[in-house]
Here is the input.
Amino acid sequence: MAYSDKVIEHYQNPHNVGSFGSSKEVQARKDVGVGIVGAPECGDVMQLHIQVSDAGVIQDAKFKCFGCGSAIASSSLATEWIKGKTVDEALAIKNTEIVEELSLPPVKIHCSVLAEDSIRAAIEDWKKKNGHATAVDTHAAHAH
Amino acid sequence: MNKPRPLYLDNAATTRCDPRVVEVMLPYLTEAYGNSGSRNHAFGWEAEEAVEKAREQAAALIGANSKEIIFTSGATESNNLAIKGAAHMYAKNPEGQTGRGHIITALHEHKAVLDPCKRLQKEGFDVTYLQPPADGVITVDMVAKEIRPDTILVSIMWANNEIGTINEIPAIGKLCHDKEIIFHSDGTQWVGKMPTDVERDNIDLLSWSGHKMYGPKGVGALYVRRRKPRVRLEAIFDGGGQERGMRSGTLNISGIAGFGKACELCQHEMQSEGERLLKFRNRLETELAKAIEVTQVNGNASKRVPNITNISFGFVEGESLLMGIKDIACSSGSACTSASLEPSYVLKSLGVGDELAHSSLRLSMSRWTTDKEIEYTIASITKAVLHLRKMSPLYDLFKEGVDISKIQWQTH
Ligand SMILES: Cc1ncc(COP(=O)(O)O)c(C=O)c1O
Ligand code: FES
Here is the structure.
């Protein structure tokens, strides 16, 4: 299967790779929301860190991803899209928009779902830390 | 079509057909197009001569008599004919009943062995699937433990196609002969690469395929022992009675001629080739391990064929790694590369963690692999793994000292 040029471009030059600190450090930071979704046994782990202002604007975002090229591209794209958006605007992003932008084939749709899930999980985490009402349970993974 | 072609390190999937083989094949497509079954004219005689020459060449490669070689369409057909053919012939009970006999095979066999066994289970046979140990090698003791009074067939591959590990074949064959059980081996990744002697190695049925040994695709062989014991098979294809009634159908003359030539070339070249490939494999494994922390060569360290290596690069997903080495054609056990989104069942059966199965690459070399290609491959893989680790959340956890295998992930 051939990759779209956009997937290849994100793979080679991913945007916003990184984190705002170790898992301990970000846990302690109220302005940072953390989303980790997926599971190694299905091949994908996506980690999204967002830095959010008091007014609820996502000022910066960083990702890390263990997954295929399409998963890497989806997370890279997601960080681009959410930067500068309010958390509510970011929550409105649909995985189908990512599929379209990156021309993902059907077998790679779940990789874009991960990106959407990681946005949700990170925002839920930020809301929880800041005493906002949260939606249903998060998809965040827990290290024991 | 003049784009530069990727470097090919996927020879366990298939090999390039040797130009010397192609040369032998061509006349049988153009001028000498007879049917070897035509007994009354020169076209037929010519074709028959080609087939019998190939039969000699195939037999010579494995120390057999040419009368013991059946030509097929490849290892899939050979395995099906051997396993179903022997099971049906030696069944303890007639069709429609249970308790028809017991078969032993292993969980990390090729699907072309596992699926015929599964079908036989539906037909009333019992099958034991041996769980391979962590090093992937099936020993004679493991087989001996499972033998029952009603065991009729043991099918254990010679070398594994994903990890290259070598099972204890002569010893398993000896055990089966002592117990009067038919012994089949899928030799697809072994024959032509390693010295084979069906007498010394106690084989009753041996499958192999042309396209894994520099011959054409769609042609293979099954060795069927004729003496001590004389092995009988129930045919799968019924028809014109070719191949001593065991495989009806007009013979693929050009393919068979090429297959024979490929066997001859392998017989002459396997030793020097094997030494060269072993050096390449060792170089790949040691230099990659030196350049990249947390790598693991899968399967027994020494009991492996020289042309295959399977390496896991921790914290890096296999399909994304393949993407980073686009100009090297090879394969991965990662779920993301498979249609089923399941990681390699072979690596799983060895107890390699899912995470390392996802991170595996299989590199398999050929007669034409060069030093320079190996050097390039080491450099490319190193670069790609380091690129991906910068993005890997699992690598961060590892660096923080978290044992990834102990994390319980909440899935959705
Ligand atoms: C061990 C083994 N058995 C059987 C096969 C099937 O061979 P063929 O493609 O000739 O049917 C293969 C190749 O895919 C193999 O590696
Ligand atoms: S992460 Fe497995 S297919 Fe995309």
Q: What stands out?
A: DSSP finds 13 helices and 13 strands in chain B.
